[in-house]
TrEMBL record:
The chain crosses the membrane at residues 58-81, 88-108, 128-147, 159-184, 196-219. The keyword Transmembrane applies. SUPFAM superfamilies: F1F0 ATP synthase subunit A. The lineage of its organism: Bacteria, Bacillati, Actinomycetota, Actinomycetes, Micrococcales. Keywords: ATP synthesis, Cell membrane, CF(0), Hydrogen ion transport, Ion transport, Membrane, Transmembrane, Transmembrane helix, Transport. The keyword Zinc-finger does not apply. Key component of the proton channel; it plays a direct role in the translocation of protons across the membrane. This is ATP synthase subunit a. Belongs to the ATPase A chain family. Gene3D superfamilies: ATP synthase, F0 complex, subunit A. It is found in: Cell membrane; Membrane. It is a multi-pass membrane protein. CDD domains: ATP-synt_Fo_a_6.
Length: 227
């Protein structure tokens, strides 16, 4: 797993450096794809969630996060690697904690420590008795649930997709070599395996989008002037 992650990081860095060094006013195919993805993250996630001014501050982090997660996820459908870098808890946990540290740091920086805790745990307009229940719940959400849910969501989706592909590929192989009438239904199993393979590519991109979007939302919630 560590080797897969190192390979993905190295490939992404090398490809990005090559594309950046050869960047042209009229982009080629590779540059166009990268710029399209960057514009998608910038316009769909960053500007819509954080706004134009605040979005500039967090754009490098969020764009880097999106590309890293996407590349790690797609490793699971690349022949020879066949294992997503996010299908073991270490990588999703590290990315989730990166988000956690970021929104807490900038939230405290903007509101002060006490002000940030009040901002996150005591939304205005709530009757005072409700705060007895609400404050512990909101505090738990800030310090545990947000980054924990980010970790589990990404990990579970990538593990589930990998297991489904292995099951149908293994089933196809078993049917082909069964030596019985079951060989006749092996094409169906093979078709399902190919379908799941394509679906896993979609899930890889979708999870990169969701993780980055939620990270931007949590940052916006921590640094907003009011709820």
């Amino acid at each position: 797993m560590q080797l897969v992650r190192l390979i993905i990081v190295a490939v992404v860095l090398i490809v990005m450096c090559i594309i950046a060094s050869r960047a042209r006013l009229v982009p080629g195919k590779a540059q166009s794809v990268v710029e399209l993805l960057m514009d998608f993250v910038d316009n769909t996630i960053i500007k819509n969630t954080l706004g134009l001014r605040e979005g500039r501050r967090y754009a490098p982090m969020l764009i880097t996060m999106f590309f890293l997660i996407l590349a790690m996820n797609l490793a699971g459908v690349i022949p020879g690697l066949n294992l997503a870098g996010t299908s073991v808890i270490g990588m999703p946990l590290m990315l989730a904690l990166w988000t956690f540290v970021t929104y807490v740091y900038f939230g405290v920086k903007k509101h002060g420590f006490g002000g940030y805790l009040k901002h996150e745990t005591m939304p205005p307009g709530v009757p005072w008795p409700i705060y007895i229940l609400l404050v512990p719940i909101e505090f738990l959400q800030v310090v545990l649930i947000r980054w924990g849910s980010l970790t589990i969501r990404l990990l579970a989706n990538m593990v589930a997709g990998h297991i489904m592909m292995l099951v149908f590929i293994g089933m196809t192989q078993a049917l082909l070599f069964s030596g019985s009438w079951l060989i006749a239904i092996s094409p169906l199993s093979g078709a399902l395996a190919i379908g799941i393979y394509g679906f896993e590519i979609f899930v890889a991109a979708l999870q990169a989008f969701i993780f980055t979007m939620l990270s931007a939302v949590y940052i916006q919630m921590a640094t907003a002037d009011e709820h």
